[in-house]
Please model this.
Amino acid sequence: MNAETQVVTPKTVDLAASFEESGVAEVLRELDEALVGLAPVKQRIRETAALLLVDRARRQLGLATETPTLHMSFTGNPGTGKTTVALRIADLLHRLGYVRKGHLVTVTRDDLVGQYIGHTAPKTKEVLKKAMGGVLFIDEAYYLYRPENERDYGQEAIEILLQVMENNRDDLVVVLAGYADRMDRFFASNPGFRSRIAHHIEFPDYSDGELGRISETMLAEQNYVFDEGGKRAMTEYIGKRRAQPHFANARSIRNALDRARLRQANRLFETSSGPLDATALSTITEADIRASRVFLGGLDVDRAQDERA
Amino acid sequence: MRLRQGQFSFLPDLTDDDIRVQAQYAIDNGWAVSVEYTDDPHPRNSYWEMWGHPMFDNRDAAAAVYEVNECRKQHGSKYIRVLAFDATHGWESIRMSFIVNRPAEEPGFRVVRQEGEGRQIRYTIESYAVREPEGARYA
Ligand SMILES: Nc1ncnc2c1ncn2[C@@H]1O[C@H](COP(=O)(O)OP(=O)(O)OP(=O)(O)O)[C@@H](O)[C@H]1O
Ligand SMILES: [Mg+2]
Model:
């Protein structure tokens, strides 16, 4: 190498500046604003971001380090924001230069595991290739492992995954997600995964207050608001809904609001005569919430399945 | 004799990172990258064996490097090349092609002379490798 092409190693780095200019600050700010609650998750992400920034600075100073292991596991109940956070993580890793493209590929068992001999490996590899340069999010990862069926093809997918997670650490980041107790059992019987995953992040259930705030931000995103009565009814709804089957945290709220908007539209259609103003078109009232079956003691089975879909 | 076919064949062997950068160039242009191998290096042998399907929907070239390495595991003693296919109307053909793997020994080609009528001579070339049956070449 001659003098001209030699890379000049800087003597110092300015962490605060690289925090801002890498866009990490912005991602964290967005994360804080867009997502209600989730304090422990946000804390872990901030810590990870700090680690990566320092790691990057060390590289710039020539204190060569290996690529840190970035594979993660997200555990938490349905609708606690795992997928949403995964999207932001992909963006974060992209801005820090740890993944080249920053897209998120979301899969479950069926996308990875085949139906017959020789079907699984190409399927898994196809998915892995699609995720390269970004983040592969495997939802309900424990379904990959079915010990009760010794000829299950899931094992084959697991082996390929483990190999790629180790050998292609620079090419993609894998996030495994699922409910805490089952993930624990999954890791216990698949120590290969446990050892390849550096960051375990737990997503707590939302409190009633947080769900209330989430309902308001969700409405605001679509240019709706609660009136006084609507807000009170929503608070009551959240308390009741939590005790009923198939409660899925923020997702239950989203579904409830979708139905409330439907009822609002019907109400406007049936009761209004004459012109409606913007306020009328965007207000969710007590009646729109209270008509829910949740107030009659619960959803019947059909509705419960709807809710999950 | 070092086989000179396609792009970059007068350069030293490409590293995986070189391959990635070239494949990324193809992907960024919207071309589908694919991997092929052969043990019949005749320049007119346009049909090499396909290693899997062309990668139409991979955004990152690490996927191409991954497949090259998978192919090397099984066909490491043969020629392997990376192609970029442009599907746009009017092109519909290969835009890039370069060798990414070659046998340890490349015996090269011999000239074959065939005598025709009236002392006419027809010339052709034959690679020494193809005198062995398929599978036993470059073993
Ligand atoms: N903290 C939050 N603030 C605002 N909206 C949220 C929050 N958490 C989740 N949501 C919303 O709730 C819905 C469900 O979230 P998400 O899909 O991320 O949950 P999940 O944990 O992946 O669920 P599952 O385990 O069932 O896949 C999404 O529409 C998301 O926008
Ligand atoms: Mg999800």
